Amino acid sequence: MIDMFLQDILPNVLKILLIVVPLMLSVAYLTYAERKVIGYIQVRIGPNRVGLWGLLQPIADALKLLLKEVIFPAKSNLYLFLVAPVLAIGPALAAWAVMPFDDGMVLANIDAGLLYILAITSMSVYGVVIAGWASNSRYAFLGALRSAAQVVSYEIAMGFALVGVLIAAGSLNLGEIVLAQQGGFWHWYFIPLFPLFIVYFISGVAETNRAPFDIAEGESEIVAGFHVEYSGMAFAIFFLAEYADMILISMLAATLFMGGWLSPFDGIPVLESFFSWVPGLVWLLGKTAIFLFLYLWFRATFPRYRYDQIMRLGWKVFIPVTLVWLVIVSTAQVFDIGPWFTESAVITAGGG
Amino acid sequence: MLENYLPILLFIIIGIGFGVLPLLAGFVLGPRHPDSEKRSAYECGFEPFEDAHMKFDVRYYLVAILFIIFDLEIAFLFPWAIVLDEIGVFGLLAMFLFLGILVVGFIYEWKKGALEWE
């Protein structure tokens, strides 16, 4: 029993903490970056009082939330009220188990990686629905309904977009999907699967209930939506889950469409050797940061969608677009058409 | 192969821990002064005069049903996409037939107005 603990469980727990602790720090500093970036976009300075350039602001926020009272609404269903935040953060963190950070640098190298991520991120909608139901507050209830319908709608578009990646890569293993994009940035899937890439990222923004799709917590209509009755640490957990999901969506976009840890200079004569010392993790984090910046940029730029516009975009634009592109991609893959869909055939012929 | 799933199990447990521990810390460190006004549901200062578990629009239900159909479709597409190179033209046509039936249903629900939100 102790042997098993030392050999199997302890190293894995340490590795998990090696993922989760930096992730939590990233979440904290993503909130800081959000306030700074939106501040500068609106010609303000943003937080600058706590520590140098306001760098200790996220720490101060966390401490403040920790010391606030957790209020239980009198009419709420206490058990579900407490389960909801746990259901929100659990899947948001557990999805990171299969994320490849560099060649071979992955906690659980399973062949069903992408399926696992799709399955476990679907769980997070339960957190929202249960929070809205258990609060027994009108705003929370409306916010949960809206959020649930929106999230499941965009999950379809997102699923179809992922099928396109699977056709091109021929594997569900995230590491193999990245390796299938080797050979220079023109092999990355954002070029041949461009419409799916756009649909994927916009659906990702909608999935995480971020602006301009943040109708679930539209301040001007339903105050804060599903977490209006949550305070203190219970609120902080929802907050952590939302930002962890944002980082997850961004890193998945980088992995599936932008070559993951691969260098953007691969295959370019001089630059390739010039940048070959840079570890893959740096490229992956850089690409992720670009997508996270897009999230913040969207929030500062676009006005909030109306609910019928959100549903129309999801059902009447994205689903037809992805269906048509799936037909094109699968046909190209089977008949080896075009510059992108011939490689796997060559590899099969050479290997077999 | 199966031992690769152990870290996932551990990760799920740790993820739940990251939900439970801050909640406990919030209980221990935060003040506890509940009163009836503080514990009432927030409705911009109005007294909540009935249960908030009210009737809601049937279209939310419709979206949920449509979601099940399309999500099942995606579940069928996943294995098909992986082995597409091996099953070739026959697999392609079979899935086109399947997608065609789905598209007919999709057009029907579109024309029926199931996707309208006024």
Automatic annotation (TrEMBL), chain A:
Quote the PROSITE patterns the UniProt record gives: COMPLEX1_ND1_1, COMPLEX1_ND1_2
**UniProt keyword annotation of Transmembrane helix present:** yes
| Family the entry assigns | Belongs to the complex I subunit 1 family.
| Entries under NCBIfam families matching the protein | PRK06076.1-2 (NF004741)
Q: Which residues cross the membrane?
A: 12-30, 79-101, 113-135, 156-174, 186-206, 243-262, 274-297, 317-335
Top-rank lineage group of the source organism = Bacteria
Q: Does the keyword Ribosomal protein apply?
A: no
Protein location:
Cell membrane; Membrane
The opening ranks of the lineage are: Bacteria, Pseudomonadati, Pseudomonadota, Gammaproteobacteria, Thiotrichales
What function does the entry list? NDH-1 shuttles electrons from NADH, via FMN and iron-sulfur (Fe-S) centers, to quinones in the respiratory chain. The immediate electron acceptor for the enzyme in this species is believed to be ubiquinone. Couples the redox reaction to proton translocation (for every two electrons transferred, four hydrogen ions are translocated across the cytoplasmic membrane), and thus conserves the redox energy in a proton gradient. This subunit may bind ubiquinone.
**Protein name according to UniProt:** NADH-quinone oxidoreductase subunit H
What is the recorded membrane topology of this protein? Multi-pass membrane protein
The organism of origin for this protein: Methylophaga sulfidovorans
- List this protein's GO terms for biological process: aerobic respiration
From TrEMBL, chain B:
Q: InterPro entries this protein is in? A: NAD(P)H_OxRDtase_bac/plastid, NADH_UbQ/plastoQ_OxRdtase_su3, NDAH_ubi_oxred_su3_sf
Concerning Pfam families, the annotation shows:
Oxidored_q4
Keywords from the UniProt entry: Cell membrane, Membrane, NAD, Quinone, Translocase, Transmembrane, Transmembrane helix, Transport, Ubiquinone
EC number annotated for this UniProt entry:
7.1.1.-
What's this protein's family per the entry?
Answer: Belongs to the complex I subunit 3 family.
Q: What class of enzyme is it?
A: translocase
Gene3D superfamilies noted in UniProt: NADH:ubiquinone/plastoquinone oxidoreductase, chain 3
Q: What does this protein do?
A: NDH-1 shuttles electrons from NADH, via FMN and iron-sulfur (Fe-S) centers, to quinones in the respiratory chain. The immediate electron acceptor for the enzyme in this species is believed to be ubiquinone. Couples the redox reaction to proton translocation (for every two electrons transferred, four hydrogen ions are translocated across the cytoplasmic membrane), and thus conserves the redox energy in a proton gradient.
Q: Name one GO cellular component term.
A: plasma membrane
Q: How does it sit in the membrane?
A: Multi-pass membrane protein
Q: Where in the cell is it found?
A: Cell membrane; Membrane
Q: What is its main location?
A: membrane
Q: TM segments?
A: 6-29, 60-81, 87-108
Query: What species does this protein belong to?
Result: Methylophaga sulfidovorans
The protein here is known as NADH-quinone oxidoreductase subunit A
